[in-house]
């Protein structure tokens, strides 16, 4: 990899920290410098929303379009029926076609916020690999495509080897996933002139399979670029929080929680995340990551605002920041805090914490209270038997320093 690229595409990806591996950097750089390069990333439709762990791939397609190239979003209507074994210890529950199609329709709304789907040479398109995979004859696939894959090599891939090393079952269905993904690249090359596949570092083997298949069957020169594994400074994976997955859809995660996820970024990660997950100018990012002490909070708020605005819209970002100021600086309860409606004359502090999903069990709630981490309207609670009586006013419940919500009594 070089720091001096001729193409806007590779310069942009390099400056913002997206490049981990490139199959042929010089050839891809030359191609991207002279023409629009259609490129794709595949997403399986296993849920109605993607999560923050998918965000680097979405931003990668956004950067591609910003550099004057054409993003292809491939939804795995076909491959979701098989299940990608990469990084999985167990066989994934398979969805029916209707469930997959509903998820795809829901996920499209996310991409419409990050990409421009208008007509034109760089307009993004979304395609479903079921359109070609569902039409494949099994014998034809084995004969025409399967012969280009040796079991010797397939058994060396991490997605296969790790499952076997752990003595976890790997079905023959899952074992075929890498063949189908390679076939996607071949089909996209034929249908849309796609020359580049992008993906995370765990997809390197699958990407290489696809470009080799295209070369062997059609003689087409294809390329691959992977991003580094995005982890937090504490070693944990992106996309997870203490309370679970950080979903991109507001249907699965309120705006406040999404904003707060970014606001709580470790000081050491702020600069990296500003480059990867926002459009803030690099010179401004350099200023922000140079802040020290309490001033680093300015950078964290800039990150939270910019990342939330991209995914949820400007109004959601502004509302979340206002709520944060009211909650933390003013000691009040902002309108955008998560809430729970209580249809009773009173509720215990333990049940209130459960109602707001601040804890997963009564045992966890009691530990929080015993440790001094529970508060009602800012006042510490020390007795797990404490009851909260119905009131026309909202009641702010806090769990630790960063989780806040309101109770609304309706009776």
UniProtKB/TrEMBL annotation:
Residues 335-393 form the Tyrosine--tRNA ligase SYY-like C-terminal domain. A motif ('KMSKS' region) lies at residues 237-241. Keywords: Aminoacyl-tRNA synthetase, ATP-binding, Cytoplasm, Ligase, Nucleotide-binding, Protein biosynthesis, RNA-binding. This is Tyrosine--tRNA ligase. It is found in: Cytoplasm. Signal peptide: none annotated. Pfam families: SYY_C-terminal, tRNA-synt_1b. It comes from the Bacteria. ATP binds at residue 240. GO terms for molecular function: tyrosine-tRNA ligase activity. Its EC number is 6.1.1.1. Belongs to the class-I aminoacyl-tRNA synthetase family. TyrS type 1 subfamily. Homodimer. Its main location: cytoplasm. A motif ('HIGH' region) lies at residues 45-54. InterPro entries: aa-tRNA-synth_Ic, Rossmann-like_a/b/a_fold, S4_RNA-bd_sf, SYY-like_C, Tyr-tRNA-ligase, Tyr-tRNA-ligase_bac-type, Tyr-tRNA-ligase_bac_1. PANTHER family: TYROSINE--TRNA LIGASE, MITOCHONDRIAL, TYROSYL-TRNA SYNTHETASE. Catalyzes the attachment of tyrosine to tRNA(Tyr) in a two-step reaction: tyrosine is first activated by ATP to form Tyr-AMP and then transferred to the acceptor end of tRNA(Tyr). L-tyrosine binds at residues 40, 177, 181. It catalyses: tRNA(Tyr) + L-tyrosine + ATP = L-tyrosyl-tRNA(Tyr) + AMP + diphosphate + H(+).
């Amino acid at each position: 990899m070089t720091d001096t690229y001729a193409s806007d595409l590779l310069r942009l990806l390099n400056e913002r920290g997206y490049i981990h591996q490139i199959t042929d950097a010089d050839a891809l750089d030359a191609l991207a410098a002279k023409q629009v390069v259609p490129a794709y990333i595949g997403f399986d439709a296993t849920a109605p929303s993607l999560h923050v762990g998918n965000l680097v791939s979405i931003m990668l397609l956004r950067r591609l379009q910003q550099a004057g190239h054409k993003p292809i979003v491939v939804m795995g209507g076909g491959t979701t029926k098989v299940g990608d074994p990469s990084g999985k210890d167990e066989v994934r529950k398979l969805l029916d076609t209707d469930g997959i199609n509903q998820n795809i329709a829901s996920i499209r709304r996310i991409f419409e916020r990050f990409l421009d789907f208008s007509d034109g040479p760089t307009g993004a398109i979304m395609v479903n690999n079921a359109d070609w995979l569902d039409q494949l004859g099994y014998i034809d696939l084995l004969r025409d495509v399967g012969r280009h894959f040796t079991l010797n090599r397939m058994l060396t891939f991490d997605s296969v080897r790790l499952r076997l090393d752990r003595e976890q079952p790997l079905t023959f269905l899952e074992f075929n996933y890498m063949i189908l993904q390679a076939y996607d690249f071949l089909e996209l090359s034929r249908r849309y002139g796609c020359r580049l596949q992008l993906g995370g570092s765990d997809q390197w083997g699958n990407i290489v399979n696809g470009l080799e298949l295209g070369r062997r069957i059609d003689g087409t020169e294809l390329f691959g670029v992977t991003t580094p594994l995005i982890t937090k400074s504490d070693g944990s994976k992106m996309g997870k929080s203490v309370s679970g997955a950080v979903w991109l859809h507001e249907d699965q995660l309120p705006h406040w929680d999404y904003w707060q996820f970014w606001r709580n970024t470790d000081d050491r990660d702020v600069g990296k995340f500003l480059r990867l997950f926002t459009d803030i100018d690099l010179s401004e990012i350099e200023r922000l990551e140079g802040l020290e002490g309490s001033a680093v909070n300015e950078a964290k708020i800039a990150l939270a605002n910019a990342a939330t605005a991209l995914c949820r819209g400007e109004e959601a970002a502004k509302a979340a920041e206002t709520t944060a100021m009211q909650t933390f600086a003013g000691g009040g309860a902002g309108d955008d805090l998560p809430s729970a409606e209580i249809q009773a004359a009173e509720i215990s502090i333990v049940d209130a914490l459960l109602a707001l999903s601040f804890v997963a069990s009564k045992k966890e709630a009691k530990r929080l209270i015993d440790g001094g981490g529970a508060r009602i309207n800012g006042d510490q609670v020390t007795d797990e038997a404490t009851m909260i009586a119905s009131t026309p006013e909202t009641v702010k419940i806090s769990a630790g320093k960063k989780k806040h919500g309101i109770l609304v009594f309706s009776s």
